[in-house]
Amino acid sequence: xxxxxxxxxxxxxxxxxxxxxxxxxxxxxxxxxxxxxxxxxxxxxxxxxxxxxxxxxxxxxxxxxxxxxxxxxxxxxxxxxxxxxxxxxxxxxxxxxxxxxxxxxxxxxxxxxxxxxxxxxxxxxxxxxxxxxxxxxxxxxxxxxxxxxxxxxxxxxxxxxxxxxxxxxxxxxxxxxxxxxxxxxxxxxxxxxxxxxxxxxxxxxxxxxxxxxxxxxxxxxxxxxxxxxxxxxxxxxxxxxxxxxxxxxxxxxxxxxxxxxxxxxxxxxxxxxxxxxxxxxxxxxxxxxxxxxxxxxxxxxxxxxxxxxxxxxxxxxxxxxxxxxxxxxxxxxxxxxxxxxxxxxxxxxxxxxxxxxxxxxxxxxxxxxx
Length: 370
Prior knowledge:
- The chain is of the alpha/beta class.
- α3 packs parallel to α8.
- The protein has 12 helices and 12 strands.
- β9, α9 and β10 form a beta-alpha-beta unit.
- The chain has a single domain, classed as Alpha-Beta Barrel (TIM Barrel), CATH 3.20.20.
- The relative contact order is 0.11.
- The chain has a 6-stranded mixed beta sheet. A two-stranded antiparallel ribbon has the order 2-3. The protein has a two-stranded antiparallel ribbon with strand order 6-7.
């Protein structure tokens, strides 16, 4: 990897479930377990009352991690961490009181609620645990609220849902989110009653919001200013938590990178849907790392430019490219994208995902970085 021009690797030390066709030395279908910690956690890093890693979802020792770190130090090759924080159905099923809960009282078991103190404690404990192992940079994914769709691994919805209904069915109305909204000046209890009544009507009748655009103004027209205040409170919760985790990283001589999934829901102007204020959140972390998953160079650059307009500093942006299908199909395409990003000042680039690359993909990366 170093010979190919790469300077480091982000080890997926905490990750979500998947079934992947891996193309390494022995191609195979691999099944990753949800919420797995690919090392032996130090539970003393987790405060009393925090969600803790389950003994069923951890490696039994740190032999593999320590061997990789040793090899990295010898080669002057960075060994960093990638961690998935709140998209964790293993933790959610064991701690259902800590997950997002919608207006029908339904629990989204794959989505820990960022407002919940025990979930926040898990994020703090996980960060401290990784830092204690000499990790110098954490790519923090999934520290945000999650919507209804793509939360589980085999979802089925047999009613026609508008974007507004989908949003409301994923909106967390738990007591901790209510408390945060009240602090932001919302009449939280009144809003909960109104949203719950609207969702019950949706279940009994047709969706009256089909064809109506999901935006904050339309939500305010339906529920009043309190829902805007609720959204603001979610954003403030995430900013505060990222500030705390960044402070922990700095105390250990490390950095925290915000892996932003906003491109997967349409871009930065849609990030409010998952509780993100991109301007404030980007200032709370060391690096903003957007998933630049697009199928043309022009789309990738347009997306990258939107981050430059928000973050204001190209040095504080690391772009993530997929050198494989469905985003890329040739060395020429990949080279153009790397060059185009560098031309607008984004020279820090991560490539996703090593386990699913052919050998030629690594060679393409090498040629693209020249």
